[in-house]
Amino acid sequence: MLAIGLASRGCGAILAAIAAFAQAREAKKARAAAQAAGRETAVLAAEANRAWTRIADAEEIVAQSHRPKAWGPLKGGAGDLWVIRNTSERPIMLERIDVVPKEATPLFELDVELPKLFRAGEQLQFWARSRYALSIRTITLHWEFADENGPAHDSERTLIAG
Q1: How many CB atoms lie within 10 A of CB 94?
Q2: Single pTM value for the model
Q3: Strand 75-76 versus strand 116-118 pairing type
Q4: For 74-110, how does the pLDDT look when each residue is reduced to its tens digit (9 = 90+)?
Q5: What is the distance between the alpha carbons of residues 2 and 160, in angstroms, rounded to a whole number?
């Protein structure tokens, strides 16, 4: 009887080992499938990210092409004098001008009060002085077309002596 009990326990142990082996094999397959799905998800996410980047770049190009062309290039004059022309065919109300770096604002001088209306072809003159290592690098003109009740615009220009 002892032999039958030992034999049945041995069979039970063998069956348990077979079941454990089968479960381990299934777990290994599931883990491999999950890893493959994870890699595929990462590839798809990277492709989606590249697509969104291309869409954003295209939208920026479209937005830039639809921006109104209002102010021409900055031109350096005598000394610290700079000139920029309203190159649109419409009147522009110039509201304000921001200077970068802000610390250089005292070095910026206009000969007119803002806001000011600039007709098509008119030019704005200003002086951008330098003191020691401090100089104006860029200006941003904040303006709107005077003949419409539309959005405000801004135009950034870099001061490059030439």
Answers
A1: 23
A2: 0.58
A3: unpaired
A4: 999 888 999 999 999 999 999 999 999 999 999 999 9
A5: 102
